[in-house]
Amino acid sequence: MKMDIHRQSKHISYKGNNLFIEETSLLELGEKFQTPIYCYSIKQIRENFLELKNSFKKIKPIICYAVKANFNKKIIDVLSKIGAGMDVVSGEELKLSLECGVDRKKIVFSGVGKTEQEIKYAIKKNIKQLNVESEEELSEINLICLYLKKKINVSLRVNPDIDAGTLEKISTGRSEDKFGISKNKILKIFKKYKSNKNIKINGLSIHIGSQINKLDPFKKAFKKIKNMIENLKKEGFVCETLDLGGGVAIDYDDSKTLKISDYAALIEKIFSDLNIEIILEPGRYMVGSSGVLLSKVVRTKKGENKDFLIIDAGMNNLIRPSLYNAFHKIIPVKKSKKERKYDVVGPICETSDTFLKNMKIQEMKKDDYLVICSTGAYGSCMASNYNLRGLAKEIMIDGKKIFET
Ligand SMILES: Cc1ncc(COP(=O)(O)O)c(C=O)c1O
User: Fold this and answer.
1) Is 381 a catalytic residue?
2) Whose CA is nearest to atom 5 of ligand 1?
3) Would the pTM of this model clear 0.85, i.e. be above it?
4) What residues line ligand 1, using a CB cutoff of 6 Å?
5) DSSP 189-249
6) What is the mean pLDDT of each run of 10 residues along the chain (405 residues)?
7) Which ligand 1 atom lies nearest to the CA of residue 284?
8) Domain regions of the chain by residue span
């Protein structure tokens, strides 16, 4: 394990022995504000978006940032200003996106459990489309449209029965998962709603899981969906739009992840002859590498057979390690040469409040600062007040400018 930030976080780096986020010293941030603090590089977020956008040579997908990955207002604002749309999964995410001035015709609303209220709100706001996850949801949407005397575009989220080969709890495209509509039902639904005055089925969508680090599952899913579109066409149904979801992995542990240019090339190879509008919903890829969780050592503790490094960030701030056994690298804010093995743990009254086990990292002492890397996605947005602990502050860095949010 390299004692360095991972390679996708280009704007978080050591200058001499001190860790910086863009032009701002993390040591100074730690001393100025109360830790733990989520710190994000705006430059990194912009670059991630532009890298994805520019990887496409033939088609110009609508890139709808998956707000669930991090609903920080500044992030939504920054991304929408450079042309991103949003993929939202709740009425509140939709409201926030609209407040941030996101173009409503670039907002898609996904999710298996949209409430009547949320559906009504989305229809009234005239967003691009609802990504529908069941026949039951579709008939509710129909009734709501009748009641409101309004029309809405929907895409049918297909469950392609593909194992994304990612963590069990973030796989979404297998037939046993709760997401999407079985591919065997899609044609029937198109036929049923063919002449419906309130609902226009404009296409299909899929999302097979998150943190997918190989092209193969994408390839299998994309080929299946292409087949479905061609078969629908033979039956006289035109898919105008195809939402390919998110799921692209980031590098948490210096292992190889898929290249974004290969992902884009795959999409172009499979779909460019269809003349169809492509929508993407990246979340983690857009923001994951942009953020760190800055934390301070509360104290060290000698255990029976090991040493514990007790830090002031806990599983209430970052739940991924305890929820998914997810790995996040931990590096010091001030580098030194001495190394030591620790279990890095938080202060919460749960054994699962452990960030790293038996890991060789730099030797540290009380009041030293460290960062938990790659926490821009599914970090702050999954935080809680467990143990009545407060939420970590969030700070956005843009060069030398600091925005507290
Ligand atoms: C429907 C949908 N789209 C997009 C995403 C974003 O996924 P990721 O952050 O892996 O890109 C998710 C996340 O689970 C999702 O459920």
Assistant:
1) no
2) 246
3) yes
4) 66, 68-69, 87, 110, 207, 210, 245-248, 281-285, 377
5) HHHHTTT-SSEEEEEEE---BSSB--HHHHHHHHHHHHHHHHHHHHTT----EEE----B-
6) 68 94 96 97 97 96 98 98 98 98 98 96 98 96 98 95 69 72 94 96 95 94 96 97 97 89 98 97 97 98 96 98 95 94 97 96 96 97 97 94 91
7) 9
8) 12-41+290-404, 43-287
